[in-house]
Structure to design on (229 residues):
């Protein structure tokens, strides 16, 4: 159980275009979803935290208007990179936490497989 | 500020034992996680400690000392597939995960 999927797994786009990444919890309801970015040989950098039905909370330095996050249901969150530029090329990973009544413990994060974005 | 420290890289021999240390200073503490991440893949959960002591799970064990702000991940009977980055993460008082930079473990035959 506790499977998180991401789509697409990799994407190449031209500079100036927008890219949408989907994150789905397949077999549990995700009360909270997290979006991370990871550059080569670096650790995970939290971009934003989103709760279903409310606006995402962005980390300092992350542009809200550039990285649009929508958490429309308990099983789906989307990250849209608007007007992408080559410096946005990175590995984007989502994770989700289940409700406190399920899972091994309340706040374990289940990670999706990641999306590799390359902006040319 | 909040800080997680772990070695950048370690090398060990196949079949041996390796200990990866993690020290932390955070605003509150709601548990410490260890994740394994192979290159190009997302992290996978290894262990969770919230009380002091040693948690053993097969070849992997994790230790926590809250008074010292210290944890270690112990890997026994190393296999080549254990070559990966190992991430230490602490959940703070706001239930946010604070991530270490990760320790790249290289296993040699």
């Amino acid at each position: 159980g506790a499977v998180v999927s991401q789509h697409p797994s990799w994407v190449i786009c031209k500079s100036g275009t927008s890219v949408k990444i989907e994150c789905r919890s397949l077999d549990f309801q995700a009360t909270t979803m997290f979006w991370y970015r990871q550059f080569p040989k670096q650790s995970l950098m939290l971009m934003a935290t989103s709760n279903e039905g409310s606006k995402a909370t962005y980390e300092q330095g992350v542009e809200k208007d550039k990285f649009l996050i929508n958490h429309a249901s308990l099983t789906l969150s989307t990250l849209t990179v608007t007007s992408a530029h080559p410096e946005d090329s990175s590995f984007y990973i989502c994770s989700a936490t289940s409700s406190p009544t399920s899972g091994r413990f309340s706040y374990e994060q289940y990670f999706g497989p990641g999306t590799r974005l390359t902006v040319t | 500020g909040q800080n997680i420290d772990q070695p950048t890289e370690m090398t060990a021999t196949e079949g041996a034992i390796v200990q990866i240390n993690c020290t932390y200073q955070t605003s509150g503490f709601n548990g410490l996680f260890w994740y394994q991440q192979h290159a190009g893949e997302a992290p996978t959960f290894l262990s969770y400690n919230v009380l002091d002591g040693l948690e053993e799970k097969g070849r992997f064990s994790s230790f926590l000392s809250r008074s010292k702000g210290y944890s270690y991940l112990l890997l026994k009977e190393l296999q080549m597939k254990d070559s990966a980055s190992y991430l230490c993460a602490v959940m703070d008082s706001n239930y946010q995960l604070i991530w270490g930079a990760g320790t790249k473990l290289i296993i040699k035959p």
User: Anything to note?
Assistant: The radius of gyration of chain B is 13 Å. Chain B touches chain A through 19 residues (CB under 8 Å).
